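Deviations from the work plan: none for this task. Representative record:
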Amino acid sequence: MNDEPARNILVVDDERPIRRALEVTLTRAGYRVSTATDGSEALTAAALDPPDLVILDLMLPDADGADVCSQLRDWLRAPILLISAVGDEQDKIRALDAGADDYLTKPFGIGELLARVRALLRRSDGAGAGDRVLEAGELRIDLPRRGVTANGEEVRLTPTEFDLLKELALADGRVLTHQMLLRNVWGPGYAQETQLLRTHMGRLRDKLEEQGVPRKTIETLTGVGYRLRA
Amino acid sequence: MSTLPEVDHPAIRRRLSTPRLRAAGASPLAALALAGGLVIGSSVVIALVTPHVPAQSAGMFYLVAVLAASSIYGVGWGLAVSLASALAYNFFFLPPRHTLVIRSSSDWLALGVFVATAVVTSNLAARARRERDEAARRAAEAELGTRFATLVAQTSDLESVLPELAALAAAALGAGGGTLIRGEAPPPEAGAHVIPLLLSGERVGELRLTDAPDRIEDDPSAGRIAGNLAGLIALAEERERRLRERVQTQALSRSNELKTALLRAVSHDLRTPLQAITAAAGGLRYAGLDDEELELVQTISDQGANMSRMVENLLDLSRMQAGVLGPTADWLDPRELVEAAADRCPAGAAGRLRLDLPHDIPLIRADAAQLDRVLVNLIENALKFSAPDAPVDVVLDATTADVQVSVLDRGPGVDPAEEADIFEPFVRGSAARRVNGSGLGLAIARGLAEANAGRLEVAARDGGGSTFTLTLPRGGAAE
């Protein structure tokens, strides 16, 4: 498409019919697609031809999806989109903690897949990195000043609420698991204190809602984590 | 000695039997002979020393005889020796000699002092003997107790050490043989001595002795040994019970792991073709098809998605019935749960959902993904059964004990006669027959609610329709 070189997507899935369906569809949508059937093949393929995005099935015959994520993350900055089954929450969380960016639950529609791929690629273009003022919908988050405005109005947040919002905004649409948020906002010793997270998240949403920001601007991924909708 | 069985524990045998041997082995003739010998011996010694010592003082040599007799044979023999000594003293040494007559008042005094001293000495010596015997007996019992405890501690099968325990106890009590019986015992054979094993007054078994000394049942040692055995047996039985429980728990968890693994494999096999169908049909939408072709592709996609939902429901039902739902409890904000569930409902339905979510609802402890399925299920049901434009209300409420989520619709309602049945798998209410579905949704929702210590109930709504209420305890499910 256009004159730019097509973006390279690596599809890792052990089921041939699914791999082919994704390959054909993504190719038609204008991407260059390479494929791998298991974890070790995925690592080789990614090393030979570094992808701009990886679509990774969590359930691989030879490896744990989370391990593949963390091995890729050692040297690859490209976003990783997980494909997982219903009920694989724990595997999903481990893979997200290991560096995956987002996930889709089977069975997903192709439209949904393409939307996620576009969003991930747009973000990885790196426009957001290093910004001192972050924007998400009606929200403007001024990092140096630690101030937040919604539709131009100041939102009065406690330091914890601000840090929580800042983490979500810095993640730039990536999924943050409960543990990631607890570790980054409260500290490494707090990874299991979900009570804290629930309570502060509730208050943060209440305050944003009072300023006309919809509650679902911070999306709940039940049992997994949160994501800020741009 | 010959009545002791062959128990290889000389220390216990020696120490427990020592007092008994002395008492039992004291034949009156031997005692009489020794007592006589002692009196005669003392008399000879006094006769030898009287040329140098006044007779009044030399009489004290008889006290040695009194002391010896009472410490060996007890106070009775001590007194007998005292009396014999007094007579011999008088007869041989107090003038006029060789008569039992006493003239001088000082001699009367000497004899009186002697008798008094002899009686006191004999009592003291006898008491010292009793105390020494008792101490030895207690020490032997303690040693026996240690031996019992070691035997019981080292075995995993109590029954196998009962004969050895019984033999030890029998040997210690001077019996020819012993048997230990746990629990209810058959009537004893003739001639057996039965010592009940009592634990806090409750009979846990009995010790039977053969060829035992008379009245062994009344021996305090027997009572204490029986008490000791009762305690150890109870302890070992408790340990065996715990061991059995642990084995059962391990077996159960292994079978649950197996079921979980099987269901996981089955679900993977069922889902994979469906995902392939959905993905392939999705890809065709970018293949430049005409409208009719696109319609067929859409049918494939939609029906694939329906099929997926049914497979998920069947898998959930299997997990429920296999008892392997295994909720992972975490702190949850009920408002957030309801918002997230409402957020995932079909796009067109968003405007029909009215959420009433107060701010002061406490956190609950439950499995987020499972409650999410319950709520999505209830909300989708409510939307499906109401008129296409009718609103559906979701109301959150908290009492001191519970948090309640109610989903209220204006659908056809549930026939009161069917209220209990609609939560059974594959049962569909009469009102539901017009609508697509498998009859699994409510069964699964209730199963998931109960797995999280909650309840799911339906009630008729004033003005038509139904209210489905999910009630969850504030404290949450126990881990």
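The longest strand of chain A covers residues 8-12.
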